[in-house]
Design the sequence.
């Protein structure tokens, strides 16, 4: 599950499609719809401040994955099931990036109830390093963490996109001109007007690349007045000759009061695979996020070392 750390990050065997996520279950708004461009401006303004506040935030991720084979006799013979159920606990951390604004990484510290490393030392080393070095180290850690995924040959090879903040990249002010946006509807939720935006990328190079350089697309549900993002969804297809896997990654945000931020609360993903059009199985996952905390880098007296220190942890 390598995170998107470069301007174009290759998805192994990926052909990117868009647009199947379900909408927000809420009453339709009867007032005149807001202006699409005005909503996009508010979202861009919101994320401009958000990316500053988000940097150096760490959360604990509790991530459950499972493989669901086809019930059709003989349909699953194509996939060797190496790991069919898994529970991962990880630190998910966000670092600043001069191009993207931020990048998100996953560092697994427990697999099926068994610790796999000393979590504190690796996290401290990342935040103590200069930015370029920290990004390289975080990429290596994320690549290492990916080997613990539910693993079914032909279905789940090199899943790389399921970090919860990936869809926000397309809504950043600097990246909005790269995509076309449509306002699909307005609904009432908790007294707020929630706008559903769809998007599909047009510009090259892609923010998230694929072998065919096809565009990524998805949806976002945002507060029409503040631009705050409440939910995102990305849809894409992994393609390899006759084998295709349709993927959906859906993320819901909630307020973490002690950090005064809306942060990922739940991420749900599903990968449904077909061979020559026949369903052969699926992988599903659900991750929940808690124990949000912010790290700052302080200079200690000993040799002027840079030492990361956690601020007050947040919770929601």
Sequence:
């Amino acid at each position: 599950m390598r995170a998107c750390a470069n301007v174009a990050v290759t998805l192994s065997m990926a052909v990117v499609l868009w647009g199947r996520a379900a909408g927000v279950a809420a009453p339709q708004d009867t007032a005149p719809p807001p202006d699409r461009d005005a909503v996009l401006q508010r979202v861009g303004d919101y994320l401009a401040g958000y990316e500053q506040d988000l940097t150096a935030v760490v959360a604990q991720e509790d991530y459950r994955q499972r493989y669901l084979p086809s019930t059709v006799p003989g349909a699953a013979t194509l996939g060797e099931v190496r790991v069919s159920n898994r529970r991962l606990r990880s630190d998910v951390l966000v670092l600043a990036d001069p191009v993207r604004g931020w990048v998100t990484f996953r560092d697994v510290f427990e697999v099926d109830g068994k610790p796999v490393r000393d979590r504190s030392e690796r996290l401290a080393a990342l935040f103590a390093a200069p930015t370029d070095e920290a990004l390289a180290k975080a990429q290596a850690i994320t690549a290492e963490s990916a080997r613990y995924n539910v693993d079914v040959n032909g279905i789940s090879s090199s899943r790389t996109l399921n970090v919860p903040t990936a869809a926000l990249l397309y809504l950043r002010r600097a990246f909005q001109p790269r995509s076309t946006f449509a306002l699909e509807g307005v609904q009432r939720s908790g007294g707020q007007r929630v706008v559903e935006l769809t998007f599909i990328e047009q510009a090259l190079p892609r923010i998230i690349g694929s072998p065919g350089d096809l565009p990524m697309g998805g949806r976002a549900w945002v507060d029409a007045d503040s631009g705050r993002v409440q939910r995102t969804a990305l849809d894409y297809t992994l393609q390899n000759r006759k084998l295709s896997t349709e993927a959906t990654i859906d993320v819901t945000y909630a307020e973490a009061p002690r950090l005064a931020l809306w942060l990922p609360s739940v991420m749900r993903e599903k990968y449904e695979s077909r061979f020559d059009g026949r369903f052969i199985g699926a992988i599903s996952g659900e991750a929940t996020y808690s124990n949000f905390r912010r790290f700052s880098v302080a200079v200690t007296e000993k040799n002027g070392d840079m030492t990361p220190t956690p601020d007050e942890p947040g919770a929601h």
Q: What stands out?
A: The CA atoms of residues 117 and 291 lie 19 Å apart. Helices lie at 36-54, 119-128, 131-145. The chain has a mean pLDDT of 78.
